[in-house]
Design a protein that fits this description.
heterodimer; A: about 110 residues; mainly beta; 7-stranded mixed β-sheet; 4-stranded antiparallel β-sheet; globular; B: about 110 residues; 5-stranded antiparallel β-sheet; 11 strands
Chain lengths: ~110, ~110
């Protein structure tokens, strides 16, 4: 089944404890992206990747890191999480960004205490 | 000011009625435009891409006005299953901007 998977789906952590949210797609997509969704603000792009080893900042990259060492994986790293990073996170992928459908993972609900 | 603005609604629509709403975007360099549907904070799913000439997919019609920088969505013969939040999305070379969404509630 073609899909985007994210792990974990739910996470409660404490300020400053490094964490990684994994994202994997099995559709051989070139493009992958991370978003956060907060009430009233909609989805905001954190980072995106056009291809392996190519990543770019979205609108809200502060406090996050990403890497794209393999085509299928695009982990999101929070080196020192803070409470303002409490949010619903979505990973997405598409064949390429230009005019193509993005397929989203199921989301990761993160709470930073 | 957000780059993509939408009326948050809710738009309360009787079953079988027509509802229309739009969004405005500020980045004139945007190249691709979409409507996504999101149910109860689940993952967004593509409803339709939006083309300059306008396009239709069953009961859904989308229009793009590049000169005025707005995108519209019209839903005909609304079904209960159309109740959702509709997200307006623009893309500029891989940088996506999402509106906060318009909530539609279809009532029996």
């Amino acid at each position: 089944e073609a899909q985007v998977t994210q792990n974990p789906r739910y996470l409660i952590t404490v300020t400053g404890k490094k964490l990684t949210v994994t994202c994997s797609q099995n559709m051989n997509h070139e493009y992958m992206s991370w978003y956060r969704q907060d009430p009233g603000l909609g989805l905001r792009q954190i980072y995106y990747s056009m291809n392996v080893e190519v990543t770019d900042k979205g609108d809200v990259p502060e406090g996050y890191k990403v890497s794209r060492k393999e085509k299928r994986n695009f982990p999101l790293i929070l080196e020192s999480p803070s409470p303002n990073q409490t949010s619903l996170y979505f990973c997405a992928s598409s064949v390429s960004p230009g005019g193509n459908e993005q397929f989203f993972g199921p989301g990761t609900r993160l709470t930073v205490l | 000011r957000k780059e993509v603005e939408q009326d948050p609604g809710p738009f309360n629509v009787p079953e079988g009625a027509t509802v229309a709403f739009n969004c405005t975007y500020s980045n004139s360099a945007s190249q691709s435009f979409f409507w996504y549907r999101q149910d109860c904070r689940k993952e967004p799913k593509l409803l339709m891409s939006v083309y300059s000439s306008g396009n239709e997919d069953g009961r859904f019609t989308a229009q793009l006005n590049r000169a005025s920088q707005y995108i519209s969505l019209l839903i005909r013969d609304s079904k209960l299953s159309d109740s959702a939040t509709y997200l307006c999305v623009t893309d500029s070379w891989g940088k996506f901007q999402f509106g906060a969404g318009t909530q539609v509630v279809v009532t029996p």
